[in-house]
Design a protein that fits this description.
2 strands, 434 residues, mainly alpha, 70% helix, two-stranded antiparallel ribbon
Length: 434
C-alpha cells in the first residue's frame, strides 16, 4: 500500500512540474466519439480549464462546509450542548441523561448545506438519514415503554406496599400537570399542545415523550429537553422550595420504619397494580403495562436473567438512543422558537408547583394523623416521578437537619407512586385529547 501511495505521489508531482515548466506545450484531448479526429488544445487553455475546475471544486467544498452554513442559532445550541455535558461531568447532574442529550444537541446542530429539493440525508429531520431512523423510536413512542420496563425491573415497591396511603402524595404532586395544562391554554396553545406541555410537571421524560408523540408531535423536541433538564436539576430546584414550605420542626419529624413486606405481597402488587391502573386509564397501558411487567420479572425470582437484562443492558441501550436523538431534535431552525422558550418557562413552573403540591398535601394529611405517626412533609416533594433523585434530595435534606434521620425509604414510596401517577395522568390526558 505504501508503494502504491508513493508511486501515485511521484506521478502527481511530475504532472505538476510539467504544467509549471512547460505551460505552452500542446496537450492532446480526445473527443467524446470513438474514432473521431484528435483535436489539439493549447497549453494555456488546458491550464485555464484545470485551474477553473479546481476553483469550482473549492467553491463547491466551501458551499457544503459548516463554516459557510453556520448561524447564530447553531452556535447557541452547541453551547447549550456543551453546557449540559459540563453539568453532567462537573456536578454529576444525571450524567446518564445529560451526556447523551448534550452530545445529541451538538450532533443535531452541526450546520450543513440545505436547499429546496435537496436531501443530503444528514439531519435528523431529513428522510433516510441515520438519525432520522433512530428518531423513529421517539416519534412513534417506542423508547418510553422500554424505559419503563427497565425502571420496573430495578424498582422496589416495598415501601409503598407497606404504607399504601403514601400513594396519595404521588397523586397530589400531579397537580402541577393540570395547572400547567390550564396555563398553556391561557397562553394560546391549543388543547393538545397544552396537554403535552403540562406533562412536564411530572418530571418524567419518557412519559412526556410518550404523550407528546401522540398529541403534539411537533413539540417533542422542546418538551423532551425541558422534562429531562428539570429531572437532572432536581437537586437544584427542589431544596429551596422544600425549605420555604416547611419549618425546622417539621423537617425534624421522625417516621416509624416501614414494616417488612412478604415476597407474596411483592409478587401480587405488580399484578394488582396493572389491572387496577389499566382499568382506570387504558390509554396508559403501554407505559404502566411495561412498568409492572418489569417489576414482576424482578419479584417473581424465576426470571432473574430477564430482569437483569431489562434493568441493565436494555435500559442502557434505550437511554443512549433516546438521549442522543432527543438532543439531536433540537436542530436550531426547528427548536429556537418563541414557543420553545414558553415551554421551558411553563415546564419550570409546572415542576415547582408539583413539588409544592406534594409538600402541602403531606401537611394536610398530618392534620388528620395522630401524634407519633405524623409524616415528615419533606417526603411530599418526592411525589414527582424523578426516580430516585427526588427521594435522594429528601434524604439529603433530612440528614442536613438531623444526621440520624434517614428518610430515603419513606421518600421512595411517593417517588414510585409519582411514576405511576404521571403515567395515569398522561393516559387521562390522552383519552380526553385524542
Amino acid at each position: 500500500m505504501k508503494k502504491l501511495l508513493t508511486i501515485a505521489g511521484v506521478i502527481l508531482l511530475l504532472s505538476l512540474l510539467r504544467l509549471m515548466l512547460f505551460p505552452g506545450e500542446n496537450i492532446p484531448q480526445v473527443s467524446a466519439a470513438d474514432g473521431e479526429q484528435i483535436t489539439m488544445i493549447s497549453g494555456d487553455e488546458a491550464e485555464s480549464g484545470i485551474w477553473q475546475t479546481a476553483v469550482d471544486g473549492l467553491r463547491q467544498f466551501y458551499l457544503f462546509t459548516g463554516v459557510r452554513n453556520v448561524t447564530a442559532g447553531h452556535v447557541i445550541m452547541i453551547i447549550v450542548g456543551l453546557f449540559f455535558i459540563f453539568l453532567a461531568i462537573r456536578f454529576d447532574y444525571e450524567p446518564l441523561l445529560l451526556i447523551p442529550i448534550g452530545a445529541g444537541i451538538i450532533i443535531g446542530n452541526i450546520p450543513f448545506y440545505q436547499a429546496e429539493g435537496m436531501n443530503l440525508q444528514l439531519g435528523i429531520y431529513q428522510e433516510g438519514s441515520v438519525m432520522n431512523y433512530l428518531y423513529f423510536g421517539v416519534m412513534k413512542g417506542v423508547y418510553p415503554p422500554l424505559i419503563f420496563l427497565g425502571i420496573g425491573a430495578m424498582t422496589d415497591f416495598s415501601s409503598l406496599i407497606s404504607r399504601p396511603k403514601l400513594m396519595l402524595l404521588g397523586a397530589a404532586a400531579q397537580v402541577g400537570i393540570f395547572l400547567t395544562f390550564l396555563g398553556a391554554i391561557w397562553l394560546g396553545f391549543d388543547m393538545r399542545e397544552a396537554g403535552a406541555i403540562g406533562i412536564i410537571g411530572g418530571a418524567d421524560g419518557p412519559t412526556a415523550i410518550f404523550l407528546s408523540s401522540r398529541i403534539a408531535e411537533h413539540l417533542i423536541g422542546p418538551i423532551a429537553i425541558a422534562a429531562y433538564s428539570y429531572m437532572a436539576l432536581v437537586p437544584v430546584i427542589q431544596p429551596p422550595i422544600m425549605r420555604l414550605m416547611t419549618s425546622r420542626k417539621e423537617r425534624l419529624i421522625r417516621m416509624a420504619p416501614p414494616r417488612a413486606v412478604s415476597q407474596t405481597e411483592k409478587i401480587l402488587f405488580p399484578l394488582a397494580g396493572l389491572i387496577i391502573t389499566a382499568f382506570i386509564s387504558p390509554s396508559s397501558l403501554p407505559l404502566l403495562g411495561m412498568l409492572f411487567f418489569g417489576n414482576l420479572l424482578k419479584e417473581s425470582t424465576r426470571t432473574k436473567r430477564l430482569a437483569e437484562t431489562a434493568r441493565n443492558a436494555l435500559i442502557d441501550i434505550v437511554t443512549i438512543m433516546l438521549g442522543l436523538t432527543v438532543g439531536a431534535s433540537t436542530q436550531a431552525d426547528f427548536f429556537l422558537t418563541t414557543d420553545s422558550m414558553i415551554i421551558f418557562g411553563l415546564g419550570a413552573l409546572s415542576f415547582m408547583v408539583a413539588t409544592a403540591g406534594g409538600i402541602i398535601f403531606a401537611k394536610v394529611m398530618n392534620l388528620f394523623t395522630p401524634e407519633g405517626k405524623k409524616l415528615n412533609p419533606l417526603i411530599g416533594a418526592s411525589g414527582v416521578s424523578a426516580v430516585p433523585d427526588s427521594a435522594r434530595v429528601v434524604q439529603h435534606m433530612g440528614l442536613k437537619e438531623d444526621p440520624s434521620n434517614h428518610l430515603l425509604m419513606h421518600a421512595m414510596a411517593p417517588n414510585v407512586a409519582g411514576v405511576i401517577g404521571s403515567a395515569v395522568a398522561a393516559g387521562i390526558l390522552l383519552s380526553f385529547l385524542w
